[in-house]
Specification:
Strand order of the largest sheet of chain A: 3-2-1-4-5-8-9-10
Oligomer: homodimer
Strand content of chain A: 15-25%
Largest interface: A-B, 40 and 40 residues
Largest sheet of chain A: 8 strands, mixed
Radius of gyration of chain A: 17 Å
Structural class of chain A: alpha/beta
Chain lengths: 230, 230
């Protein structure tokens, strides 16, 4: 597959490395590729900038958002911060987004009042719904947004008793995305389809609990399991 | 123990039956006991009114909120709807609430726009925090609010791999509440202390996800398990 990854933060990096390891061609999108390559500082969580990895991995292209979506023609992986989510898609534009499948991992985290962040949209709306409403022909599938990067791409680290949720309006797109999740190591039983994109409200609102658990356990290696009586 | 249960809905009923079965004395509080006894209609979920059970269980007293808290001197179990939570406590008053331990199971569900409900407070505040802020000397422990009534009182129905969260400012009160949870069948490893009462924001905001899972699985017998890599 040719895959566009939008976002160069720790989520984008983890997904880029995983998807590259699965022998797909990836095009990483950023607002300004030369600025991104010049950035050599770690982020607030101590994650190294993507520039170091890209310099050592010449087969991966860092391009602007629009070029990434043009070239990554089979799948879009949306790993932007919530704050910049809609801006990013505006630079891509409707025509390139129509009929495309997009895995939306973004959460509307607002760090403006410190840690833990609040949500910039919640309860009566969600970021997933806002993206879907703005681009009605884009096939948004919200998933993977309820866990840390290492768990997203290495689910077996926690065994098989934990859940990845999925929300989206397009059934075929969800089937495609489930296949991508399986290629990451998720098994069918771990994937829970919540329903249409309005259910993204549920998973985005899990973040406040995730953040408080993270503060207690001090490891990214945890996730929620849906235990249903059989 | 002498236990006050505030609220006669399905949560209050499930807790009343469980606590009675553990040989404690219970005092169920309602706004107007004679009105409650006259109500013979099932609720929106098909649960029978508490009057039927009370008529068959003469050892249990149905009294007004204030009397319940006066007589249930060892523990308050708060099982009111979010809408009436603060009103209920106002009828009890500060002096009776000071230094008491209260298990707060309430969620700020707002059904005014239909199903699924939204939250009347979330993100930057929580109902647990509002109650604690209004009654600073009341020892509020938010717990059990992330699951159905049958799971609250019969956790073994789902095995032992699922979690009950706890939030509160008073460490001793949390120890007491953990003992109550254990008497319901929870084991130590299932009880996850998130921290102070501000963490109630996390568990109350789990409700939108809980509601959407419930809509899919159509059974109250499910819960979330916190899977942490050991």
């Amino acid at each position: 597959m040719k895959v566009a990854i939008l976002g160069t933060g720790s989520v984008g990096q983890a997904l880029a490395k995983k998807i590259l390891s699965l022998d797909h061609e990836i095009f990483i999108g950023t607002r300004n590729p030369s600025n991104t390559m010049e950035n050599t500082e770690s982020d607030a969580f101590g994650n190294p900038p993507i520039s170091a990895w890209l310099k050592a991995t010449p087969e991966v292209s860092l391009v602007d958002f629009k070029t990434a979506v043009e070239k990554g023609s089979n799948l879009i992986v949306f790993a932007m911060s919530g704050k910049h989510a809609l801006d990013c898609l505006e630079t891509v534009g409707d025509s390139l987004l129509n009929n495309r499948v997009m895995i939306d991992i973004s959460n509307p985290l607002d760090f403006s009042n410190g840690f833990p962040p609040t949500l910039s949209v919640s309860n009566t709306d969600s970021l997933g719904e806002q993206i879907q409403a703005k681009y009605p022909k884009l096939k948004v599938v919200k998933t993977l947004n309820t866990m840390s990067n290492p768990v997203m791409v290495s689910p077996s680290e926690l065994g098989s008793e934990h859940t990845v949720f999925m929300s989206g309006n397009d059934e075929d797109a969800k089937v495609d995305v489930a296949e991508v999740l399986k290629s990451f190591g998720w098994n069918e039983n771990q994937i829970f389809d919540l329903g249409d994109i309005t259910t993204a409200r549920g998973t985005e609102m899990l973040l406040p609990l995730w953040l408080r658990v993270f503060a207690k356990v001090q490891t990214p290696y945890f996730n929620f399991n849906l235990n249903i009586k059989s």
